[in-house]
Request: fold
Amino acid sequence: MTAVNDIEIRFASSSDEREAVYRFRYRIYVEEMGRYASIADHQGKRLIEDDDATSHLITAWQGDQLVGTARLIWGGDAPFTARQIKQYDLAGFRAALPDDQMIIGERFMIEPALRGSDLLYSVFCFYMNFANDHRIQLAFGDCEPHLLNVYQGLGYRAYTRNNVNSPQTGYLIPLVLVTEDIAYLERIGSPLAAVLSNFAGAARTPANLEELLSAGKAVLSQRLIDAASYWSNVRQRLDRLEDGRSHLFDGMTPDQIQHCLGKSNVFTCAPGDRVIKKDNVAQNMFVVLNGIVEVRDGDDVLAVLPAGEMFGEIAFFLGLPRTRDVYAATDDVEILSLSDSNLKDLIESHSETAAILLKNITTLLCHRIARSG
Reply:
């Protein structure tokens, strides 16, 4: 991670600085990523939202150039809105804690030339220092499936089955960081253990924390359980596919499958969940473990993919944005999200496993073409 020098991070303190944030958002989200076009101010080239009126806007400056920003929503400034309560499933948490002990972090973005540097982490640390100063117990956020391992490595945990289906960004997994549970952060090796204040015996966490987090078991991740348990859970799901159908791991030994599963996770979707949004830039591949998903172009269903099928291969191999939307079509859809970086490393370093993997991908694609007539 490259260090960036001469950066000043502070809250926007004037209308001019807030306007700079709105223009920066427009450039990143609307022009670069093709998101939020329906709510953006195209004439003024601004992306401003109702939540901004009562939020703290974090800004990162390199000289007089804005190079990063984020939005911090604190329940101590104003009660959480209906949108925030629904999106982050806050009702149970609000019954256990006052709003002023919770924050939500959104709209983290960095100048393209500085991605891959330590700037995003620096902005994140500034956000966490607000938690230190105000004795915040819970910090909420969400992420796309391919970023889940990154956030869990920081200490965030999934806590709800009600994942977010945004018309602008697609499928998002709500997450929460228990800021004063330093023992947990140290146990998983989170770098935030050194950033968040250790209040030791005076630390505060919700009394019913485990109950509040229990629904998060719908997301299965190697970050949260040992490798053997994760493999056992995934193996049970793969065993369901052993009925003559081809799948991505055909002909592989258990060790070879585990190489493919590095940095992967399994998540559950409800009917109508949009797993992939067209034009999204993520490049991970997916395997349907249970249920059925549909590949759509608008209202047209282009393909129906049952358990054992994969999708996301065009973005993975060609490095292109997603070409179609993919929706969960039945109850209890389970999807394995494979890390694109892990698979690319595997192709480079494990030639035998890579050969089987690529053969299986080719076979699945050939079957799909044959079915389409």
User: Anything to note?
Assistant: The mean pLDDT is 88.
